[in-house]
Amino acid sequence: xxxxxxxxxxxxxxxxxxxxxxxxxxxxxxxxxxxxxxxxxxxxxxxxxxxxxxxxxxxxxxxxxxxxxxxxxxxxxxxxxxxxxxxxxxxxxxxxxxxxxxxxxxxxxxxxxxxxxxxxxxxxxxxxxxxxxxxxxxxxxxxxxxxxxxxxxxxxxxxxxxxxxxxxxxxxxxxxxxxxxxxxxxxxxxxxxxxxxxx
Length: 199
Known about the structure:
Structural class: mainly alpha
Helix content: 40-55%
C-alpha cells in the first residue's frame, strides 16, 4: 500500500490546467545517425556519376561522328600524294605512341609504385577527364587519390656552420710567466686571453 502512495502524479500547470505530456524516452540501443556536413558527397555517388557520364559521352560519340580533318577529294591528289599522305599518317601515329611510351617510362622511373599498380593506373588513364591531362600530372593525381604520394622532404637551406674540432693551443709561456703577467701587465694578459693564446 505504501508503494501506491509514493507514486507522484504531475500537477496541473497553473496557466492551462492541463497535465504536462510525458517526454518520450529515447531508445538507448540505437545510435543516432549524424547528418553529413553541407556539401558532402559520398565517394560512391561520385563513382556512379562518373560511370553514367562516361556512358553518356560514349553514346553521344556513337550518335554524332566527330568531324576530323576535312578529307580532300581523292581526285585532288596523285597516286604519289596519296601514298605520302598514308605514310605521314602512319608516322604521326607511330611518333605519338613513342612519345606516350617514353613519357610513361619517365613517370614509372619517378614513381616506381606505378609498376605495381599498372592495371589500376591504366583504368585511371582511360577516364575521359584523365586522358586530357599529361601522363605526369595524371600519375600524381592517381597517387594522391590512392594516398600513395610521398612528399619530398623540405630542403632546409645551408647547414649551420660548426666550429669543428678546436684544440686548445699549448701556451708558449710558462705558468710562472702567465702569473707574473697577470699581476704586472694585466692589459697584455687580457689581450692574450681574448685571442686564445693562453688559457
